[in-house]
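User
Please review the sequence:
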Amino acid sequence: MLGSIYRAITLKALAQGLDLTQEADRQRLDGLAHTCQVDTQAQFDGDTLRVVTYLDGQDVTDAIRTLAVNRGVSEVAKAPEVRQAVLQIQRRMAGYKREGSETTTDKLSTTDLVMDGRDIGTSVFPQAELKVYLEADAAVRAQRRYEEMQRQAMAKKENRSTLPTYDEVLRDLQARDAADVNRTHSPLRRAPDAVVIDSTNLTIDQQVNKIVELAQSRMA
């Protein structure tokens, strides 16, 4: 979910012609991020549950997974003003209430929230009851992303020859990891109380089962 929000903001920045390698354009991200209306919804496509991302009312689920967005999202995500705007979006989605309002309290009002992202457990919801740090070998992650893009193109009957190669996907993934680990604001790191799951050799169902078992044990 977290990555989808940053990707949606990146998509809007690119659509408005911002060059994210230029400082002058990066300074415009603050205002842009605060005007983005981003939402995510879980929807069934037949028997498959998928998370759909909306930007200003438009379905951008596939558009935020392009190579251009992949290459620009780290520049967007490391901007402190953007991170603050995204923090408010995330907490709104989660039902987080700020102290000082007549109708709110400073706490998380929902008890059945599942949220993913690179700093959810360290910056966004450090009080979460269960934190899972999901990791995998970079080559395996790149292969998964590459195959996902291929499947999406086939489903939409698009020309797959225009898609990035596996090597390009891997390079971009490694570059983003390095940028996220080394950024000044909310760098990628594991929360001390997070449970680490290495998904390199696990199927999606196996990953889900492990996390569900952890959640059930915490609620017991």
